[in-house]
Amino acid sequence: MPAPEDYDASPFVPGGADLQGLRDAAAGCRGCPLFREATQTVFGSGEASARVVLVGEQPGDQEDRKGEPFVGPAGGVLTRALAEAGIDPAQAYVTNAVKHFKFEQQARGKRRIHKAPNLHEISACRPWLASELRLIGPEVVVALGATAGKSLLGSSFRVTQQRGIPLPMPSLDGDGDGDGEGEGTLVATIHPSAVLRADERARADAYAGLVADLGVAARLLRGGSG
């Protein structure tokens, strides 16, 4: 494998492909080492006509096994929060910034513990996300958590500072540092897994904040200013 700074999925991304063509090609991606341990590539799910795209971090354990994004506990939180915010979950396209599950195996037992992807892995996988967004052309993109935000806005992104604020959608061409504007509007929020990780006293507030941020996206879809 190449050095980390040379990780790149671009050679595996077919030009002119539709979403199914991208999905088929992504199954053979070897752009970074994460494919070695993951069960399979987990590509985005939804229709090319979707007006909103939700971008998470990476597949979790259940997503890796089933081959679909957001089908685990965090997906349940997201589906409920979308509905409460006024966005039909069935009308959204869901994907991840990184398409393979990165994990550590517990010394005892078979449990696989999530491990956050690094900037080299995020950058390597960006061509897949850029291709999805170009094909769909959504009005609103929601970045769910720090990894998605860094993939879309660059390494300086901080979810605590930029969540819930309508931002110009950056171009994903080039180095991925958020230079230049693309089409549509971006809204950042926490990843729904952060709700699950919060202690009992903080969980309700974390969930309410997620719904509020998604409500900004819902108002944009209705033609409001957020």
Structure description:
- Keywords: 4Fe-4S, DNA damage, DNA repair, Hydrolase, Iron, Iron-sulfur, Metal-binding.
- This is Type-4 uracil-DNA glycosylase.
- Pfam families: UDG (PF03167).
- Residues 43-208 form the Uracil-DNA glycosylase-like domain.
- With 226 residues, the protein is an alpha/beta fold.
- It has a single domain (4-221), classed as Uracil-DNA Glycosylase, subunit E (3-Layer(aba) Sandwich).
- It is 38% helix and 15% strand.
- The protein has eight helices and seven strands.
- α3 crosses α8 and α4 (119-136) packs across α5.
Task: Considering the chains and any ligands shown, give keywords for the structure.
226 residues, alpha/beta, 8 helices, five-stranded mixed sheet, Uracil-DNA Glycosylase, subunit E
Overview in brief:
The protein has helices spanning 19-26, 61-66, 73-85, 119-136, 146-153, 159-162, 192-197, 200-221; strands at 52-56, 92-96, 103-105, 112-114, 140-144, 167-170, 181-189. With 226 residues, it is α/β, with parallel strands linked by helices. It has one domain (4-221): Uracil-DNA glycosylase-like domain (Uracil-DNA Glycosylase, subunit E), CATH 3.40.470.
What topology does this entry show?
Elements: H1 19-26, E1 52-56, H2 61-66, H3 73-85, E2 92-96, E3 103-105, E4 112-114, H4 119-136, E5 140-144, H5 146-153, H6 159-162, E6 167-170, E7 181-189, H7 192-197, H8 200-221
Parallel strand pairs: 1-2, 1-5, 5-7
Antiparallel strand pairs: 3-4, 6-7
Helix pairs in contact: 3-8, 4-5
